Amino acid sequence: METEKIGMREFRENLAGYLEAGKPLAITRHGETLGFYIPAQKKSRKAEVEAMKAAAKELDAMIAAWGASEDELMQEYKEIRRASREKKRNAR
User: Fold this and answer.
1) What domains are there in the chain, each with its CATH number?
2) CA–CA separation, 79 vs 67, rounded Å?
3) Tens-digit pLDDT profile for the chain (92 aa)?
4) Residue pair 57/72 in contact by the 8 Å Cβ criterion
């Protein structure tokens, strides 16, 4: 795949489009190459959804094995969040 050269201003103004295109880019200013944008490999949307479903299924099985109710899990979550916020406040 060939690297496309684009100016820094054009890259900045059309950033979202270039990032979605997934092509390697050479970013230039006044004809000099400043750097390169090399996109990460995209995962297919279907693979991401399947991974999320598998993780949810595994989590459901773990919760069932613990015998915890939704209310108990939410209470524990809230306590963890509260403790985390207090820790951050005290660190300042």
Assistant:
1) 4-37 (3.40.1620), 45-91 (no CATH)
2) 19
3) 578 899 999 999 999 888 888 788 999 999 888 888 888 776 677 888 888 898 888 888 888 888 888 888 889 889 999 999 998 889 87
4) no
